[in-house]
Amino acid sequence: MEQWEIDFNWLKIQHFVKDKFKTPDLPKPDAVLFVIGLQELGIFKESYSHEQKLDITTLGTMTVLSSRGYFRQNGFDDDGWPMWENLIPYEPENDTIRQNELKIQICQYFEQRYDIGDYEQEG
Known about the structure:
Layout: H1 3-21, H2 29-41, H3 50-66, E1 71-76, E2 82-86, H4 95-113
Antiparallel strand pairs: 1-2
Helix pairs in contact: 1-4, 2-3, 2-4
């Protein structure tokens, strides 16, 4: 996939999430991974500790990377949190490659779960 395609698809997802959550700014990848983690966790609270936010963002990351075979979910712990098994080490060559890979996987996650093929931002 060419860089312009990654950027175009990512911008569409950013607008989708921004509109759904009615935020003033376009979200960064970590914020979108947090949203994905919340969806996968299914436990919603009014606030989360810093550590819980990191855990939820990590959950989002493992979720999107599982489609590439890096992780596999192995059930749930006693608190209802998904447990994961690392199948392949995730070691991108640099941060740019890491960011692009995550953006691609985030876009695929949303495209598989939501009708955003022709999404246009609210106006």
